[in-house]
Amino acid sequence: MKREIEILLKRAEGFVKDALEDLKRDDYDLAMFHVEQACQLIVKAKLLDLTGYFEKTHSLRKLLGDLSSVLKKEEIEKFVNENWNTLRNLEFAYIASRYLPEEFKRDEVEEALRVYKKLWEILWSS
Known about the structure:
globular, 80% helix, Four Helix Bundle (Hemerythrin (Met), subunit A)
């Protein structure tokens, strides 16, 4: 299972690199989608690490809820509460990328990248 976790984390890093390149090109919609994918993968990797399983969902808030039941519950809940709007924007970016003509702004992507970095710290820095 360690190999699967490494693959998910490597993919997350790739999505963040893509998001940063998208940002340079002012492609905010695609950047937001790439940040969302990176967030999903680091949460799923942590769930896999701790429980051997993750639910097949694309909802970051659902995945984080699952995670809060097994890891640093208060810290995860606080993170979700403090970043609710950005997490909702990230979830919406996933849906919009497939079904809706929605646009994001640079500041929303920059905030999403900040949230990703904070989430990485909470999950993988210790």
